[in-house]
Amino acid sequence: MPSSETLAIPMFKWIGNRRFVHGNDGRELIFFHGGIGLRVQNYSSGKKIIIRFSIYREDGAAEQYILFPSFKKHLENGDEEWATHQLPIFPWHSPHGNIKAATFSYILQAENEALYPECEFLFAHEGDFANGSLNHDFPIVSYSDFRPFRFERTSLEEAAWSIYNSPLYHKVLFTREPTYSHYHPLKEIHTLLDKVEENLRNEPYRPHYVHFSLFNFDNINIARHLIHLSHIGVNVECIGGWEQLSSCDWSESVAELRRNNIPVIGVVRSTPFEPSDGIASMHTKFIVFDGMAVMSSSYNLDFDKWTENRENGIFYYSPAIALLYEHIFQTIKGAPFQTYTVEPSAQYNLYYSLGSYMNRHGLHFSGCDIIEAEIYGARETILAVMFDVGDFHMPGSGRTLFQALIDSARRGVAVRLVLNGFKSEVQHECPWEAGNRPLRQDLNILAENGITVNLLYNNHNHYSPLHHKFVIIDGENVMAESANWYPATLYSDEVFSVIRNRETAAEYIEELLLLLKYYRVKTF
Prior knowledge:
This protein is α+β, with helices and mostly antiparallel strands. The protein has helices at about 125-130, 155-165, 185-200, 220-230, 240-245, 250-260, 320-335, 365-375, 400-410, 420-425, 440-450, 500-520; strands spanning about 10-20, 30-40, 50-55, 60-65, 70-75, 80-85, 100-110, 115, 120-125, 140-145, 170-175, 210-215, 235-240, 265, 285-290, 295, 310-315, 340, 350, 355-360, 365, 380-385, 415-420, 450-455, 470-475, 475-480, 495-500, 520-524. Helix 3 packs parallel to helix 4 (about 220-230) and helix 4 (about 220-230) packs parallel to helix 6.
């Protein structure tokens, strides 16, 4: 099979002038804009290209990022120019020391197939940033191992249909207790990591793995547990948002993982330090444990930073569900997403925001189509508990989210939104005035059309602890995990599950009632 280099070659690269920017903790950093262009043969329609950009540091650690170049223009002979300008380059600010070199390789996708690279091309040496210019050649510096696992559509369909016909073994855990409590999700994460080690002892000749896909995972105890597993032979890989994994917001947890040769890959969905480019991100929050279990949540693994946050996580104990999440993990890494057949009304389904699905009649649909269908399918109640909500057009129908909610309220469905108060007020420069400001105008439209809007706050200060992303429909259907109902979800990596189970719905209803009882609430 040909490699990606047979159908695409590096065409140009560049860096801009150095800029002084501020990291998330206020530190001043030197940042370089930069870009990579490829000349691509027009070999198929529906192409997608994924670039792996690697930065090698003084201590031997490697920062890795995944970029998504776009089509720019047609060239002679039917070729095309594709390029990206989304490189997160901080040459001299890192826990790993100065940059020594930066390289890249790329995957080509079309029609559910992929061509993988054989080579790493040089992007720059440290001195190039000091000089402010690049050499325009592309020497090959090493072999590339940028080759995610590709799933077959039939295996995904078999997994989905086996879930429909089996008991759904899962557990919902909330962050109501301290992190050392037996009832906090952190305890279950460590328990499952221990189970992976046990699997390795019992079956030493089978591959074992832990795959993280979390927006942020700043937890030193989890990092040390992963390092231990890696040292004894477990394959550990981590994916996160580029901001949290770069010099912009580095943590000692991530630095320790990299020092121990664990791949930590930042996904770049928006242009660094360009607010006009939007807030798309890699926003999933799940862990796949050795193909036997999965955690998917509203929380990131940074509990020590946000000890008062109200969050939820779902733990699934099912190899079939683990396979569906692993498919998404490999898709984010660069494998083609395989569209497979599902039954949307079944007891459980998993949806990926950038994926595509079809029903048994061959009709294709997206996760956003499912959100719309669930809203219009509500008979009595829609209870949405969200960190943030914003209006957006549904790609399938063209209707907007707010239109769907208002239509439901007008036909007699009781619609209630419980939102993070700090995010849902009119924004102001003075955060201490939070709790006294009016409702955002877009949300005010919902309140004026018969929808109850509750803003939640701490009792002792002006901030809000609410970081949930769950919806309960008719007291029996739950949509939960990483996806907020707002425009960025259309362009970000997100996952959410639909669970049709009254007992599960009752657990989420209990959390909603506890929020309304024990926190300060403003109602519109």
